[in-house]
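Review form for a predicted model. The reviewer records the input and the model, then writes brief findings.
Reviewer: anonymous (R2)
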Amino acid sequence: MRALIIYSASGRLDPLVTGLKQGLESVDINVQLQEADRSQSQPIAVSQYDLIFVGSPIVGVFGGKIAEDVQNMLTHVSRMEGKRCIAFVKPLLFGTGKGLRTLMSAMEKQGAIVVDFASLTSPREAQQLGKRAKKVLPQ
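Model under review:
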């Protein structure tokens, strides 16, 4: 099994991504990381992955928005149709639920099937999300 984690370069997501990767690897899922790029213009094919994670910090004064680099990156992902995906965000005081819905909506516009989602505040929570991801994959 192979997983791809697409995550924002902003918002200090590195500890969460590391925890998520460790959780996935502990259940025998190979992981590739892809930091989002605001200037991405080339298509990114994801057909070789069984599971795709997309992560963003919640941004904005009152939250509810996702990072611009993730928003741009998702518009350049190809072959996401029908892929099992998991959305995760690093919360802000306000707007976390709305931001999570915004991220899932952007993923679904690319044809993704969002099978799980989470608001993560620690590497431990991220690791637990990675471990539970095994349950959404076909056996």
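Findings: The domain at 2-136 is CATH 3.40.50.360 (Rossmann fold).
Further findings: Residues 96-109 form the longest helix (14 residues).
Recommendation: see findings above.
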